[in-house]
């Protein structure tokens, strides 16, 4: 065998091994999906077998029982409110902190980014009390606003790192043309931050959409405010012997993320990498 | 003078929303938990009772669940960090070999990461209880017939396994990005000098991967110590309390046992431990990095 041939065989073997590995890796997801469309009897009989017929009624039953449309909307509302606030406030503060160097901005920078070191679980007990006092618990908008606070430290940090690569001459010339600080931020700086904004959106959507503990503490008491994951959690708890319904509920909970991922995977992977490297 | 004042006002206007929000969700609760950790309070009675350092004494007396949960979390973190980094790096190295469909495979490994951890816990609960039994009937592989969630010793490995399964794709993606940034001319030079693939990897690629390794080790550490959702869905801390992580223990103490004071004390100790460990790891990692 020549060197080139040996290299080629090696590559083929590697490809086959990796492919088998990847297939085994997502086999549990596959099992969840096939069992979600089986009649109950078939789930009990044989978990691995493919369904003899597709039982869509599992889904209609679960969607009706969970009030899926409402939950989906709740998730969208909470996520959108959270993201918009995080982006506006963190980019604003990162802008001024990087442009005006004085005692005050140094203090602000320290205060805004330090909480990255505080794990959520160390403050959750008293957080609930504070949120009850300021009336932000028990509502979708309130939860969205809380995400502003939790998302700002990391977002401001990422924006701050990027701000230092934007030449100061840009805002100075805008300033000479008569634009005020806010105007400069809005029409010159913010558009230039597009790639970072994108990174922040990817990371924070994934986080807020799938978040569990904060919604559990804040909005779990009423069906009006529950999120998708919370409701799936309760549902699976109640239907833990009726696996066909539980599986359908689980598929419904993760389906939006998977669909979005399939269409935007290139950007999502880029965003996740950029966020981790900069963060 | 007037200009200076205007500048300060502007700085304040741009940062006050962020400062206010961060105060509201981090600093105020944090300071309050300092106080509550010194009290006995059930969350219902009007005023907490001040008891000094009693809560902290209780934490470190032998009978507390806290020490057990600390040990569990420590073990989990070590296993998670080591396996996640080794496996992710190995898979990343395989996937950057210009093999066909590498991107599709990368996505297959990444899918669990975009799913909610709670759902991931449930999927595996189903697999461990129903799926393994069915696979055992077909294959008769011994490990499929074990009670992975029912035995306190095995449950640890089940939890760690599921945690790794969920997160691995994230680290694979980070390592792939790191590997792609290793300059090819350096690798080619090594090849010309007659280095074997193994030598090339350990002597050239790995040292140049320093920043990626630092990022991944650090992130796997901070994510592992906070493990919560997966355990809640998979074992709820059982069997016999053997899989309580620190975060789950804090949650139970405060919101199930209604001991807000004791829960706050646990949270504070947890905070200090994490702060010390992350700083130490960060320092150790940075001092080892190699520049090109």
Automatic annotation (TrEMBL), chain B:
Entries under Pfam families matching the protein: BPD_transp_1 (PF00528)
Membrane topology: Multi-pass membrane protein
Segments traversing the membrane: 12-36, 76-96, 108-134, 154-177, 260-282
Record InterPro entries: ABC_transporter_permease, MetI-like, MetI-like_sf
Domain ABC transmembrane type-1, chain residue ranges per copy: 70-281
Keyword Transmembrane attributed: yes
Location(s) in or outside the cell: Cell membrane
CDD domains xrefs: TM_PBP2
UniProt superkingdom: Bacteria
Keyword set, alphabetical order: Cell membrane, Membrane, Transmembrane, Transmembrane helix, Transport
Family named by the database record: Belongs to the binding-protein-dependent transport system permease family.
PANTHER family referenced in this protein's UniProt entry, alphabetically: ABC TRANSPORTER PERMEASE PROTEIN, INNER MEMBRANE ABC TRANSPORTER PERMEASE PROTEIN YCJO
Protein name: Sugar ABC transporter permease
